Amino acid sequence: MPDKLTVDLHPLFRSDRDIDKAIRNTIFRAAGEKVPLVEIIPGKGSGKLRSRVLAMLNQPHLKKLYRRVEVAPGNEGMVLVHLK
């Protein structure tokens, strides 16, 4: 069992549907496999993609799967999702 799953959003940044699907699939997979941490890499940039990721993670059907979300300390281009 892996100790974390990582999803890099750099290749998907132009497609909102692909971004949503990638995040949703990774969170559900991690919850199903009991992986404690998901790293989502939206990149540094202007912060629009990171705020979109954080808004998506705030949806009720995803929110019930994790304990907390944080921007990685020292790396604002990575969002860490700690699952239950």
Question: Would you summarize the structure shown here?
Answer:
It comes from Amycolatopsis antarctica. With 84 residues, this protein is of the alpha+beta class.
Topology:
Blueprint: E1 5-8, H1 16-32, E2 37-41, H2 48-57, H3 60-63, E3 66-71, E4 79-83
Parallel strand pairs: 1-2
Antiparallel strand pairs: 2-4, 3-4
Description:
The structure is a single chain. The chain has 84 residues and is of the alpha+beta class. It has one domain: Ribosomal Protein S8, Chain: A, domain 1 (2-Layer Sandwich). The protein is 37% helix and 24% strand. It has 3 helices and 4 strands. The chain has helices spanning 16-32, 48-57, 60-63, and strands spanning 5-8, 37-41, 66-71, 79-83. The protein has a 4-stranded mixed sheet with strand order 1-2-4-3, with helices on one face. α1 links the parallel β1 and β2. The radius of gyration is 12 Å and the shape is globular. It starts with a strand and ends with a strand. The mean pLDDT is 92.
Search tags:
Ribosomal Protein S8, Chain: A, domain 1; globular; four-stranded mixed beta sheet; alpha+beta; 24% strand; Smr_dom_sf; single chain; DNA mismatch repair protein MutS; Smr_dom; 84 residues
Helical content band: 25-40%
- CATH top level class name: Alpha Beta
Q: How large is the count of helical segments?
A: 3
Tally of structural domains: 1
The rounded distance between the terminal residues' Cα atoms is: 16 Å
Second CATH tier, the architecture: 2-Layer Sandwich
- Proportion in β-strands: 15-25%
Question: Rg to the nearest angstrom?
Answer: 12 Å
Which fold name corresponds to the CATH topology? Ribosomal Protein S8, Chain: A, domain 1
Structural class: alpha+beta
Low-confidence stretches: none
SSE ordering: EHEHHEE
Q: Sheet with the most strands? A: 4 strands, mixed
Strand order of the largest sheet: 1-2-4-3
Number of strands: 4
| Mean pLDDT over the full residue set | 92
What is the molecular shape?
globular
